[in-house]
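so ive been stuck on this for like two days lol. basically i have the seq below and the ligand is nicotinamide-adenine-dinucleotide, smiles is in there too. i just want the complex predicted, nothing fancy, no docking runs or whatever. if the output looks off dont worry ill sanity check it later, just need somthing to start from for the group meeting slides
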Amino acid sequence: MELKGKRFLVIGGAGFIGSHTVDELLKEDVKEVIVYDNFCRGNPQNLQQALQDPRCRIYDVGGDILQSDILQSAMKGIDGVFHFAALWLLQCYEYPRAAFNVNIAGTFNVLEACVQQNVKRLVFSSSASVYGDAICEPIDESHPFRNTTFYGATKIAGEQMCRAFYHRYGLPYVGLRYMNVYGPRQDYKGAYIAVIMKILDRLDQGLDPIVYGDGSQSYDFIYVQDCAKANLCAMKAQTTDEFYNVGTGIKTSIKELTQLLLQLTSSNASIQYKKAGLTFVKNRVGCPKKAQRELGFRYSVPLPEGLKKLIQWRRQDQKQTTTLPS
Ligand SMILES: NC(=O)c1ccc[n+]([C@@H]2O[C@H](COP(=O)([O-])OP(=O)(O)OC[C@H]3O[C@@H](n4cnc5c(N)ncnc54)[C@H](O)[C@@H]3O)[C@@H](O)[C@H]2O)c1
């Protein structure tokens, strides 16, 4: 779908990937971008720059995907929907019922509202979690679902629900399976923070970073702005009823990642290895070729450059937070 002159609803648009997608959308000749978010994890600060653009606003009647009547009203006249709202891996682990409600029933509400309001196209945020531990490398989209987590289960259900709505009601959609997304605006203060932030927290405190296991567990790290661009490619594309990996195809072990962070922060701390605790997946690198071929998406920010930007943003954000009046 062409973006020019169109109206978009970005559900979960105050969050990490959603807010960067809002920024990318505003670089295009779109008519309006409305953010729909209940702010349980999202932050209005993430939209500070976007909200200076008169084409962008927060849907202020409410913003919960569990409130289907409000969701319906927000979708009136909308051409394209990006659906980012979800509870994250560790929240789903602790609260499976909440995960079911938000990620599965909430996604059903989004799809139903899209059909009832004649939305022309949906981009659904899935996850590489659907694959679980890899049986071959790199993982392409035909890799079996070996997920063992509640989070992954909700993403598989979401994907299947998109497919069923397309086949039953003809709602065009594409689902994106993001690899490990990192970058500015990534949560580092809340209860559920990712590995990069945990390492940086230790370094900030002058402590050695801890790596669980031998550090050989490897992932595919993709910069958030690249991920946002993949969302726009998916909205622009003609293809429907398809799922795509969004990653770099480059494998980085946790040990390599930690070494890189030590280098970039000019730290002379040394890595402490500890017995592996709770690990969901040990090995996951996505094949980016299908997204390159069919969506025209290719990552552009290499890991060291992206990490540098993340560290700069984090320092800036920490300074602002500590100087805020209480
Ligand atoms: N960050 C990653 O590495 C990653 C990897 C794979 C998949 N994903 C998926 O991408 C999407 C975006 O992830 P993110 O990292 O930006 O997460 P995030 O938590 O920063 O963003 C999710 C947003 O959804 C909002 N939200 C949650 N429940 C809601 C509800 N009931 N109604 C309305 N809004 C609600 C939150 O307030 C938040 O702003 C999610 O679906 C996530 O599962 C993320």
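The longest helix spans residues 96-116. The chain has a mean pLDDT of 95.
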